[in-house]
Amino acid sequence: MSARIVNLVVNGSRKSMIAYPETTLLTGMREALGLMGTKRGCAQGACGSCTVLLDGEPVVSCLVPALTIDGSSVETIEGLADGNDLNDVQQAFLDGFATQCGFCTPGMIMSAEALLARNPDPTVDDVNEAISGNVCRCTGYEPIVSAILDGAQRRRTRAAATAAPEHLDAVSDAPQPTEATI
């Protein structure tokens, strides 16, 4: 089989890359698309450092043949921040000292993002299960689990604050008492 063009939506933007039969999603993202945030660890699918979201589901990108995902959507660590503003989980990792060398961090955060997309209020057990395919050899898992729970809380708080102004607008639109009714 010869090389083919693979079309993807990566972090919300349409991208194309040339892929050969041996090209993995990880290799294509790093070498063809220049996305270096996703790390190559074991290259056997055992460490989780290369985790990305493929059509919303976490996958170890070192095992995904690029030729099999034409037309798919991929979200990487580079797609989470808004310019220089980290997202809630990224900021919680930073604030909670949940990284040391940082090699596992992109994969951990992408696994956390998949969890929070389906369960915005996870338990410790939910988090442990979500990151069970990700290996950290430096930090230990307690600060990572705490950071994911903190990121979830930050996200819920922000969502509630965003919803609150709509409620306040409805209240302010209600008829106000006048002197005649007091």
Write the H/E string, N to C. Answer: EEHEEEHHHH
- What is the architecture of the largest domain at the second tier of CATH? Orthogonal Bundle
Taking pLDDT < 50 over at least 5 consecutive residues as the criterion, the unreliable ranges are none
| Biggest beta-sheet profile | 5 strands, mixed
Radius of gyration: 21 Å
User: What is the fourth-level CATH superfamily of the largest domain?
Assistant: [2Fe-2S]-binding domain
Helix content: 25-40%
What is the overall number of helices?
A: 5
> What is the strand content?
5-15%
CATH topology description of the largest domain: DNA polymerase, domain 1
Query: For the record, what CATH class of the largest domain applies?
Result: Mainly Alpha
Number of domains: 2
Strand line-up in the sheet with most strands:
2-1-5-3-4
Secondary structure elements and their pairing?
Layout: E1 4-10, E2 13-19, H1 25-32, E3 51-54, E4 57-60, E5 73-75, H2 88-95, H3 105-118, H4 124-130, H5 142-172
Parallel strand pairs: 1-5
Antiparallel strand pairs: 1-2, 3-4, 3-5
Helix pairs in contact: 2-5
Characterization of this structure:
There is one protein chain. With 182 residues, the protein is of the alpha+beta class. The chain folds into 2 domains: 79 residues, Beta-grasp domain (Ubiquitin-like (UB roll), Roll), CATH 3.10.20; 92 residues, Orthogonal Bundle (DNA polymerase, domain 1), CATH 1.10.150.120. 37% of the residues lie in helices and 14% in strands. It has a 5-stranded mixed β-sheet with strand order 2-1-5-3-4, with helices on both faces. A hairpin with a 2-residue loop joins β3 and β4. α2 crosses α5. The protein is globular. It starts with a strand and ends in a 10-residue tail after the last helix.
